[in-house]
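Work package 3, deliverable 3.1, input record:
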Amino acid sequence: MRIVLAGFGVVGRSLLEIVSEQSEELVRRYGMSLRFVAIVDKGGAAVSENGLNPLKALESKRLKGTVAGYPGCGKPGIDTLSILDDVEADVFIDALPTNLRDGEPSYTYLKKAITMRLHTITVNKGPLALALPALKELAEYRGVVLRFSGSVGGGMPVIEFARQCAMGDRVVRVEGILNGTTNYILTRMEEGLGFQEALREAQEKGYAERDPSLDIKGYDTAAKLVILANEVLGIRATLEDVEIRGIEGLDGREIEDAKRRGETIRLIGKVDGGLRVEPTRIKVDDPLAVRYAMNAVAFQTENSGRHIITGRGAGGRETATAILRDLIQVKKFMAGGGVT
Amino acid sequence: MRIVLAGFGVVGRSLLEIVSEQSEELVRRYGMSLRFVAIVDKGGAAVSENGLNPLKALESKRLKGTVAGYPGCGKPGIDTLSILDDVEADVFIDALPTNLRDGEPSYTYLKKAITMRLHTITVNKGPLALALPALKELAEYRGVVLRFSGSVGGGMPVIEFARQCAMGDRVVRVEGILNGTTNYILTRMEEGLGFQEALREAQEKGYAERDPSLDIKGYDTAAKLVILANEVLGIRATLEDVEIRGIEGLDGREIEDAKRRGETIRLIGKVDGGLRVEPTRIKVDDPLAVRYAMNAVAFQTENSGRHIITGRGAGGRETATAILRDLIQVKKFMAGGGVT
């Protein structure tokens, strides 16, 4: 399977690490031989028809700051669009940083890759939150697989789990804590910290970005909610359909008041007819009331009950594993078995 | 798809209710047309090559206490073995009560059905806990599908979720609260009740059986653990491989002591090399520390973190939905698509 990988940050590098550790096992378990024919980062690309050596690509990044320093295969300055034009491949993987403003440059790359009939995997919430219905239509029209398991919940198989909950049944409501940073801040505020103090701590622990506004203002949660609404409930929604209120206005007194009533305040995203993100009071013994940087998503079904999945929801190696899960589905599709 | 159903208790009846409500939808969504050619209960059977009417079967059970009262199709006194000999079918569904002593009569029925090359679905922990490795081998040898989604967690897609967690990754440890009755009792004891009082309450609420010893002594948890060990970790275990300690010896002081330390005692089944069921102290904010009759199972993976699934874990309609999920997999297999 010939792969073009765009984005060589924590997730992209973790993917190459895992693949190099497990290449034999992937062949044995899934008949899947992964050949990275091009990797692109901000400094340029490394290209090899026969497949790049994962360890050499990682070393080039570590020593020279870009994969374009790969000996003999480096192409400084070249970008993903030219790579898609020039390199023969089966799969495009987008591991670029999220941009919720216009989804670029990922959105353009994804459209081009799908149009060129490459199976496409992204972990990037930006283009999905802004245009998932259009991208799905395009993929269907072109007859290729479009997967994005890592875009919600990091390594947690949230979307796959939801598909299982809907099998022979129907998911009627989705609600969840989809952002670890805000959940960490809310938990620490409950424990007595002020908002700024809790935020600083989240940043020190590496949960929050330097610009944490996407988390705090609820946009990250909203983006993931849009993805779940499309995938799980078949609602053709985009980011502008979500009513969003973040946690920046919360003060300690509200949190104290909830605590006295055996409740806790969490930033909950909910699809229930409409899409809404807002600080919400829930009972402390609700399984959704997870603490610190955890995520939790509840799927209410028609017949089989309310199923909740809980986990860490972030991390490079975790998200890279989600990409691997998507690659296995692509492999199944290419082998004629259909996807699940 | 021609089905023989053995067992017409809460789960079997719920299955027929759901199928009669959703027959058109099942055709539309999965191309699956379900024809019950025989239903067997203690009083005998109802048989029809053209398919029984689910509502008439339910009515016969309600009015006459047995499906053998089905007008024109009733065969009082006939048993499952004769039905398997005489009736042409594609799928055998076992919804009989659990017997953890020797798994009978289900074990004999399952072996016969598989040997006759019927795809086989069971929700019955008895034969699985005692002989899952042998049954799986037999099904593989005969080239049929053997599924048992409803045997663990009721309607929660626990086994399917575990498969997703293992996709491109490896599950290295499983631990969980797999029995709602004991979890209800432990929660109520934490709230101040004595063991006998909490047990009586669980019985009144319909959680515990009249003979609750299988729950209390940990055997029900152990049976489910065996199923997960086989399915998720590939360990060829049976019930006798499990070290089991139930909750009957627990006293209020131990529970009080745990509480003072921010911990809680839960009956945890764990596969981690060996298989063990025992009352275990966990932190109150561990996502596994669910309350009342809830179930929770944690899958620790090598690369993608610790994923936890939480839900009600019991109920007739819920478990019947799990059977439907298995039927969809059988349908996929029959259509040549392989199972997932």
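Chain A touches chain B through 44 residues (CB under 8 Å).
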